[in-house]
């Protein structure tokens, strides 16, 4: 595709070529769904764009969106772009302090308030003078509403253009290591990423299979923004469904019957644990090994998850245990791991039928260059590469090599066939009292593969050896009051400790496994909005107990 064509050009072309094709399907409560065709989507965006321009904002002004995934997120972003402005999306689970930081740091001129669960707690973070517009599914407010504005405003005409180097969005990182950073993304970068993911999806599915997706991972993050929103705006041949709520997720999946399903390791693990809660792993394994019956059982399991129509399944955002990938593939689901980050619009590496292996994140996407530095760090140059960190020129300069490769901070190995393996993150490495560095991520992958473990963290800075803290599987947690169940968990975790230690070098051996007192969540600050663990937060919370654990006896401790 010619580099001169940008994302808005694709959108105008799709609205002209197939105006009546349904693009977005939004649940609105009570089992009802509202469909938006390409013509309706673009018409609403044009009307809102005209309204935004009428407010007299200067070109490039920042317009923020605070909302869970919904059809109007897509429309608002298109309106912001058509009007000549830049999107600043805020994670819908952020606390008021972070909402305030992002709005102030970005210099936002207006805020779209959308579908939210904790708006009353977030509202104090919004400057009182900041104008606000409410999406149709927003909490009850007295703000001017989207529907009222588009009803009274004529559409912006023509084909408003943006330059390839103009700023399309500021994506604020989820802050797993501190204050969020604003990654500057140009229209050229988001277009190239959207083209790449659209082509990748169509190649996986072929020309005859309909592309249906469920959008539920946060659109404020580059993973969903590039893989779902940008790819479908560019491709024009997909049908995007949205989830209504957490407790309707399986219903939403059944409605969408996705042919493409993108998730993160924690959710792939929770799906597996949900299956194991209904059927013991040993029994399922035995049934899957029986000819003919095994295929029937596998299909029934996938149908129960709403994934029986999936032809392309992907995992990203964090490492996924190789055993978990192998388990899904045994069910007949072609689950492939990918690798990317905000700084390359998630457009970096992906697996496919020819190049894939559990434990590897795939090969470089078209146009992506990769190499390993002398220190073992992965260096990437991507067509989707960001323009730098907003208001942080020193950090931007330090993040690139002299020849323009981004320093990812991840450690890795590159095979001769191009398959890339992530071996850890440089900033996560810690040194024990013996002077040896420990890479926690590979050890955590081994722990997370156990059906009793939902999440884990490996730590032990300055200690004689490392330790692991685990969150038990959701189905197990209510049973911890039963002494028999608790004893079984203790025995199995003790065995897990032995098994893991046999698979890692002696200097990475775990001294113990500690069972977390409560699950880690976004709400209690232990997970980022993309469900990565916040190491510093968790380590600080248990710092006072660590010495007691090391002086105690036994392989398993309870926090």
TrEMBL record:
The keyword Ubl conjugation does not apply. One of its GO terms (cellular component) is membrane. The keyword Transferase does not apply. Keywords: ATP-binding, Ligase, Nucleotide-binding. SUPFAM superfamilies: Acetyl-CoA synthetase-like. It catalyses: a long-chain fatty acid + ATP + CoA = a long-chain fatty acyl-CoA + AMP + diphosphate. Residues 13-390 form the AMP-dependent synthetase/ligase domain. GO terms for molecular function: ATP binding; long-chain fatty acid-CoA ligase activity. It comes from the Bacteria. This is AMP-dependent synthetase and ligase. It comes from Albidiferax ferrireducens (strain ATCC BAA-621 / DSM 15236 / T118). The lineage of its organism: Bacteria, Pseudomonadati, Pseudomonadota, Betaproteobacteria, Burkholderiales.
């Amino acid at each position: 595709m010619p580099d001169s064509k940008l994302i808005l050009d694709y959108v105008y072309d799709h609205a002209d070529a197939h105006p009546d094709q349904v693009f977005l399907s939004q649940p609105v409560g009570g089992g009802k769904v509202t469909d938006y065709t390409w013509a309706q989507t673009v018409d609403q965006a044009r009307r809102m764009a005209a309204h935004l321009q009428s407010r007299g904002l200067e070109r490039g002004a920042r317009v923020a969106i605070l909302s869970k995934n919904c059809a109007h997120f897509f429309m608002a972003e298109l309106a912001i772009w058509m009007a000549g402005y830049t999107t600043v999306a805020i994670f819908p689970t952020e606390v008021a302090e972070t909402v305030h930081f992002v709005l102030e740091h970005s210099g936002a001129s207006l805020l779209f308030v959308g579908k939210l669960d904790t708006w009353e707690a977030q509202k104090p973070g919004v400057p009182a003078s900041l104008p606000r517009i409410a999406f149709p599914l927003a909490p009850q407010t007295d703000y001017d509403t989207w529907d009222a504005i588009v009803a009274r405003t004529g559409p912006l005409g023509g084909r408003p253009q943006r330059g390839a180097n103009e700023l399309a969005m500021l994506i604020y990182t989820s802050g797993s290591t501190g204050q969020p950073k604003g990654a500057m993304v140009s229209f050229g970068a988001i277009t190239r990423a959207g083209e790449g993911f659209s082509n990748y999806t169509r190649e996986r599915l072929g020309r005859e299979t309909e592309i249906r997706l469920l959008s539920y991972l946060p659109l404020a993050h580059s993973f969903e923004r590039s893989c779902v929103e940008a790819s479908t705006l560019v491709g024009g041949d997909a049908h995007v469904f949205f989830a209504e709520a957490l407790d309707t997720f399986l219903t939403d999946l059944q409605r969408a019957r996705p042919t493409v399903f993108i998730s993160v390791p924690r959710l792939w693990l929770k799906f597996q644990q949900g299956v194991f809660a209904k059927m013991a792993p040993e029994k399922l394994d035995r049934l899957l090994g029986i000819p003919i019956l095994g295929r029937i059982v596998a299909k029934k399991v996938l149908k129960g998850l709403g994934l029986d129509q999936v032809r392309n399944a992907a995992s990203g955002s964090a490492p996924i245990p190789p055993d978990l990938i192998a388990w899904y593939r045994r069910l007949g689901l072609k689950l492939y791991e990918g690798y990317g980050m905000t700084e390359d619009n998630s457009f970096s590496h992906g697996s496919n039928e020819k190049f894939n292996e559990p434990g590897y994140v795939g090969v470089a996407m078209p146009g992506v260059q990769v190499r390993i530095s002398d220190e073992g760090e992965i260096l990437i140059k991507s067509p989707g590469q960001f323009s730098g960190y907003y208001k942080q020129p020193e950090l931007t300069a330090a993040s690139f090599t002299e020849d323009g490769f981004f320093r990812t901070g991840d450690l890795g190995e590159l095979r001769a066939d191009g398959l890339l393996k992530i071996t850890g993150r440089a900033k996560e490495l810690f040194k024990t009292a013996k002077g040896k560095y420990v890479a926690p991520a590979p050890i955590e992958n081994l722990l997370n593969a156990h059906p009793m473990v939902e999440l884990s963290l490996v730590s032990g800075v300055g200690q004689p050896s490392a330790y692991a803290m685990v969150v038990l599987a959701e189905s197990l947690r209510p049973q911890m009051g039963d002494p028999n169940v608790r004893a079984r968990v203790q025995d199995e975790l003790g065995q897990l400790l032995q098994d893991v230690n046999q698979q890692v070098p002696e200097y990475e051996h775990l001294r113990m496994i500690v069972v977390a007192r409560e699950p880690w969540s976004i709400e209690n600050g232990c997970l980022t909005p993309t469900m990565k663990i916040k190491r510093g937060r968790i380590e600080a919370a248990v710092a006072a107990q660590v010495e007691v654990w090391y002086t105690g006896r036994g392989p398993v401790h309870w926090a």
